[in-house]
Amino acid sequence: PPVSSQFGPFVDAKHEQVENCQLLGSFTDIFKLCLKTIIEGTRSAGSHLVFIPSPRDVHHDYVYPQPPFLYPELPKDDRPRVHFMPDPCTLDVD
Predict the structure, then answer these.
(1) Which of 27, 35, 81, 83 counts the highest number of beta carbons within 10 A?
(2) CB–CB of 66/51 below 8 Å?
(3) Rounded to the nearest 10 degrees, how much is the dihedral formed by the CA atoms of 57, 63, 64, 69?
(4) Any stretches that span the bilayer, and where are they (predicted)?
(5) Buried b / exposed e across 53-78, counting CB within 10 Å, b at 16+?
């Protein structure tokens, strides 16, 4: 049976290291590392991934509705299984 998981925000505005300016990289660099890790880590399972922004993602637009994340580095082979959606959105699964 299909399994779904939810987690995020990716770079949380409420995280202690963000609030205290203790990060070693830019918000965008940390976000891209998170995406890369998740996408590469799920590749062999063939999982479909849906990424929806959170208002607390500090690297993303502070507007509502939120546009989808941009990730031009997404490898071509992963594009059929990785989906970037806006917030809010409606998903029709199967």
Answers:
(1) 35
(2) no
(3) -50
(4) none
(5) beebbbbbeeeeebeebeeeeeeeee
Give the per-residue pLDDT at 1: 40
What's the average model confidence in pLDDT over 46-70?
A: 83
Q: Give the domain ranges of the chain.
A: 3-84
Question: In this predicted structure, what is the pLDDT of residue 19?
Answer: 56
CB 82 within 8 Å of CB 39: yes
Task: Report which of 40, 21, 53, 29 is spatially closest to residue 82, judged by C-alpha positions.
Answer: 40
pLDDT digits (tens, 9 = 90+) for 10-41: 665 565 655 566 656 677 787 888 889 889 99
By CB neighbour count within 10 A (0-12 exposed, 13-18 middle, 19+ buried), where does 15 fall? middle
